[in-house]
Design goal:
heterodimer, B: 424 residues, 8 strands, globular
């Protein structure tokens, strides 16, 4: 393989599409766009002008992209493998990867050499995912980007019982009607997500150290609550949402 | 579109319009999942034919048998001793339960949190879409789980139902109970058919059902070859058809198919390349046309080489001892054989764990996919034990819980593909 060869990894998720370009072992460039109603057009837009020797797709759109994609044959891998590979690149000691994305939560248990030992995904419902947070931020009229920081201002911990997006919203509404502060309600919603995430981590084994990736890893409240419970530092990469695309590109490099 | 069977279906009180829709969907589904496969064996044409005529020719045969005075007995479970049915000169058939049909109607008489299989057999009946059940003179239910047990109480208002009590432990007293149930069943069959079950007839029936089990055992031995000569989907289909088709014809046709497989194995030919990851399915039964998971698995770059299931080895692994001469000896042999079934309804059920590990090792699988129907408590509870046991043997397992709907297709694909990547 030529060291100058450019390898592209593209992660087509429900909320956003990320592209990572690898040159050798180095991330040469990356980009992120919203998925919109025409993900393939967004992919084309992202790939415009990119001359990669190899392209690997991951995420829900992987198959479609691989089938309708480029002429030089696009490979496809699952998000599980992509996050496993990407996480290990960012943090070689990682043993558990938590990825909370737009509609999925995944927990991946890795062997000491980085092979996937066991994984778990939420089934069907988007409870506890980015979508849940997005919905609740809107309900509390807080911008999504500052929702985690807003929740951290809470002065007490209240329990939100429902994980169903619709029921949780009515629970939040009735708490508001009872005079509970929005920050405390926001904290309660974050606690509910973390409770659910910890249960999944427990089922998979949840060995330390833990790397937290995916869009929701931007949320400082989730990270803080996870660290509080696990009594350890949770690794969050500088750009947690490109770990999947990075993993796809790394897979491409391996298979050149 | 009219068919030569319309009059027969009408007589059976099927909902003709809905039934035509069902056959159309089934045909398309079958085409996508089965006929699209590369390198299928010629012997599979028999199964394609049987499937295409599943509600046609086979039902006609049942009607003709009925005209000759034979009774048709339907069953939902491998615990129902088919040998006795055949010895009473009756026809034994499996019933419809593998599709999401009549759910709304079923949910009026059953709780929503009931497994898909139960909802489906009730749904098929309420929607008037199963010519098998409409042909039955008696439907045999059994107490293999609380869901079924309670469903049969309601179902008895719609079908001529008879319920057998299946023990849940394997102590001496349970064997006594089971033997008394077998005797009660024998008497019931004699009453309903008017035929006496003689030693000669029972001996013949035991031999016949054993022959069918043996041919399926042979099929399982042949498919164990590396590379496997037949897809898991096809073997599942064979196991499914085994419940519907005439046992003599079925045994003969599968024997011919096995001859072809043998040649393939000798020539080292496989349905997939020999480095394709080999997986085993374990868990809940899959009735026709429940092909969702096998299809996903085999279109994710893996091949299924074993089914630890009632529609699989649980139905074929154990034979009835054929040495019995008197009715009493033969009944004892039957009782012993059926008490070997390692259904998740038993407690404790260590045999199943041991059998799964042996099977996985014998078949040299890279992993096991545990298939549980949502709300099927016995198998859901055992999935955790199975995973631990397999882990101890160094075999990875993926637990899937799903139903007959297609709404989780994408989710399932991601999981199964990730599992295949993991074990590759």
């Amino acid at each position: 393989m030529n060291k100058q060869d450019l390898v592209a990894g593209i992660d087509i998720g429900s909320r956003s599409i990320e592209l990572v370009l690898l040159q050798g072992d180095r991330i040469k460039d990356w980009a992120k766009v919203p998925t919109t109603f025409d993900p393939m057009a967004q992919c084309r837009h992202l790939m415009n002008g990119v001359r990669a020797t190899k392209i690997v797709a991951t995420g829900y759109g992987r198959k479609l992209f691989a089938e309708t994609g480029q002429d030089n044959g696009v490979a496809a891998i699952t998000e599980i493998q992509a996050y496993a590979l990407g996480a290990r690149y960012v943090y070689p000691e990682v043993r558990t990867v938590l990825d909370i994305g737009g509609q999925d939560t995944k927990v991946i248990h890795l062997t000491p050499v980085g092979r996937v030992l066991k994984f778990e995904m939420n089934d069907r419902c988007a409870a506890g995912t980015g979508k849940f947070l997005e919905f609740m931020a809107t309900a509390l009229q807080v911008p999504l980007e500052s929702f985690g920081g807003f929740a951290l201002k809470a002065d007490k911990r209240i329990q939100i019982n429902s994980m169903c997006t619709v029921f949780a919203e009515s629970e939040a509404t009735s708490l508001m009607a009872r005079g509970e502060t929005p920050a405390n309600i926001a904290m309660g919603l974050h606690l509910a997500i973390v409770r659910r995430t910890l249960a999944m981590l427990g089922r998979v084994g949840g060995a330390s150290p833990l790397l937290f990736a995916g869009g929701v890893a931007h949320n400082p409240c989730i990270k803080t609550l996870l660290e509080e419970d696990r009594k350890e530092t949770v690794m969050v990469p500088e750009h947690p949402d490109i770990v999947g695309a990075l993993g796809a590109a790394l897979y491409g490099r391996k298979t050149l | 579109m009219s068919t030569p069977y319309d009059a027969m279906w009408e007589k059976l009180n099927l909902d003709l319009e809905a039934h035509a829709g069902l056959l159309e969907v089934l045909g398309k589904f079958y085409g996508d999942i089965y006929l699209s496969q590369d390198g299928r064996l010629k012997g599979m044409e028999y199964l394609d034919f049987v499937l295409s005529e599943i509600h046609g020719l086979r039902i006609q045969e049942l009607q003709e048998a009925k005209k000759q005075g034979k009774k048709v007995i339907g069953a939902f479970c491998v615990f129902v001793p088919e040998e006795l049915v055949l010895a009473a000169d009756a026809v034994c058939i499996g019933l419809c339960a593998g599709a999401e049909i009549g759910t709304e109607a079923a949910e009026k008489i059953l709780p929503r949190n009931t497994c898909a299989l139960i909802k489906s057999f009730v749904g098929f009946k309420l929607a008037g879409l199963c010519p098998f059940i409409e042909s039955c003179d008696m439907v045999v239910g059994e107490t293999t789980c609380d869901g079924k047990k309670k469903a049969y109480e309601v179902f008895s208002e719609y079908a001529p139902l008879y319920v057998m009590e299946i023990p849940q432990m394997k102590n001496a007293s349970d064997r006594v109970l089971w033997k008394s149930e077998v005797l009660r069943f024998k008497e019931q069959l004699e009453t309903i058919t008017g035929n006496k079950i003689t030693a000669a007839k029972l001996k013949e029936a035991i031999a016949l059902v054993n022959r069918r089990r043996r041919v399926l055992q042979r099929l399982n031995r042949l498919r164990a070859a590396v590379p496997t000569p037949i897809s898991g989907r096809d073997v599942l289909l064979i196991n499914q058809v085994g419940f519907y088709d005439d046992p003599i014809r079925f045994t003969q046709k599968i024997g011919e198919l096995c001859d072809q497989l043998e040649e393939r194995v000798k020539a080292g030919e496989g349905i997939v390349p020999k480095d394709t990851p080999r997986l085993m399915l374990s868990g809940c039964p899959m009735a026709v046309p429940n092909w969702k998971l096998p299809y996903i698995v085999e279109s994710s770059g893996a091949v299924i080489v074993g089914e630890e299931s009632c529609v699989g080895t649980r139905n074929t692994r154990d034979l009835v001892d054929e040495s019995g001469e008197t009715i009493e000896e033969m009944l004892d042999n039957l009782v012993d054989r059926y008490m070997q079934i390692d259904c998740a309804v038993f407690t404790p059920n260590k045999e199943r764990l041991d059998n799964i590990v042996h099977m996985a090792e014998d078949l040299k699988v890279a992993g096991v996919i545990h298939y549980g129907l949502t709300f099927c408590q016995p198998y859901a509870a055992e999935a955790i034990k199975v995973e631990k046991t397999l882990q101890g043997a160094g075999i990875p397992m993926l637990a899937i819980e799903t139903d007959y709907s297609m709404e989780d297709m994408e989710q399932l694909k991601t999981r199964v593909e990730a599992f295949v990547e993991m074990v590759s």
